[in-house]
Each structure stands twice: as C-alpha cells, then as structure tokens.
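=== RUN LOG ===
request id: a7f3
mode: sequence -> structure
chains: 1
length: 265
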Amino acid sequence: MKYSILDFQKEFPNDDTCLEYIFKKKYPDSKGWYRVSGRKAYANAEGKQIYPLSKTIFEKSDTSLVKWFYAIFLFSQSKNGVSAKELQRQLSVTYKTAWRIGKQIRQLMTQDDTKLGGTIEADETYIGGTRRMKVKMENKTPVIGAVRRGGKIKAQALKNREEYSVIPFLMKNVKKGSILITDEAPVYKAVLDYKRRSVEHGKKQFAVGNLHTNTIEGFWSQLKRSINGTYHSVSKKYLQTYVDEFSFYYNARFSLPFEVLMERI
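=== RESULT ===
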C-alpha cells in the first residue's frame, strides 16, 4: 500500500492536525488534556502544561509544522535524496532554513544497533575528494558496509582503512558465525569470528555461483549516483548523515518510509 500526496494532504491539512499528531504520539495515555489557545502546548485541569515539540526535530523552529511534515513526506518518497535547493523551492523558505530542515530529517534516519546475520556481503568504497590518481585516493573518505542477502544494510564512514576501523565495524554490526563474503582486500585477513569467503576481483573474478559482492556494490553505485546527482558533493563532516539516509532508503524498501519516519519524530 502506498502513501500518496493526497493521503498526506487529507491527514495533515494544517498545523493543528500536525501538533495533535505529535501530542498523541508522545503522550498516548494523556486523557483530560486540552490545547492551550494560541500556544503549541497542552494543559490539564491542574494547570500543568506540556510542550509536544520539546526534544523533537521541530523544537525552536518558526517554520510551520505542515511544511516540516511535507518535507518528511518528500524524503520518504525519494530514492535519491532531497537537496536543500529542492526543499527551498517546495517549501518557500530560505536556503538556510531548508538546509537545516534536511539536516534534522536525516537525524531520523540514523541506523539502529541491531546486528546482521546469515549470509553477509562486506565491502568498502571511497566518496568525495578529488578524482582517482593512479592508485592513490586523495581526500576521499572510506566507507565500509555490510548487507544481508535479501535483508538490511549497515554502513559507516571511516577515518581510514586500517584494520582497527574495519574489524570493530564488523563486530558491532554482524553476528559472530555469519558467512562473510568479501573481496581479496588484505584488510579482511584479520577477520576471525566469521566464516569468510572471498572473490578475487584482481583476477577478474566477480561471481562464482552465489559467491559475489554484487549486492553491496549495487548499493555503493546507488549511493554515489545519488550524492553526485542530488547533492553534488558532501563534506566529510556530514558524510555519515548521508550514508545513514541512503541506508534508510534501502532498509525501508519493503515498508512505508513515511510511517517509519513519523514513528521516529
């Protein structure tokens, strides 16, 4: 079942419906509370007040909640991301406001702490910086990922490609005893807690039956196309938030992304 723009407009026609949604989401058992006139607050008969927007991405924002919710809807409908310029056009806000809204929405896309199990493909790529010069990656940031065949993905931007960065990532995100498929990169030689198998890309070996890393490489291709096409470039400082964003799209492909994001506000 899809969630269309008509569904969105029907469910959230104004700021009041958006605030009521947030209030009920945060305080599902709050009976006897009423909306305080002219304020984004609720009160009860005892005079106690609560502010539903506190500790949410909407806190201290003057932008209307309908625009915030619509921005979340736009992200939920995208596979290639939503640039700040696109948000600026769609929401009729300043570029500074649009950039902040996008940044805050990506916080809802942070990866969880669950571990992957089963048959896992692991690989690394490089993003940003200058173009490849011979064998040297200048100013590029390494990103490592692990994906469960037919399941979810985990990905992380690293400071370097050393083993002490890769191994902790695998230990944190992949269950011990899982089948781990990688390429022949030396960085994976220190992996001891998994049933590691590898394909030798250097010898033009890309798939031997089910032995391949095509799934994770497909994700890298999508990630790079989207960053280059939508965002054009991202700084190393914020790269992880964009990695989280596209990991979210991948992991939410079998659900309604809008509902998933709204559960996280």
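=== NOTES ===
Residues 5-107 form one domain.
The longest helix spans residues 214-231.
=== END ===
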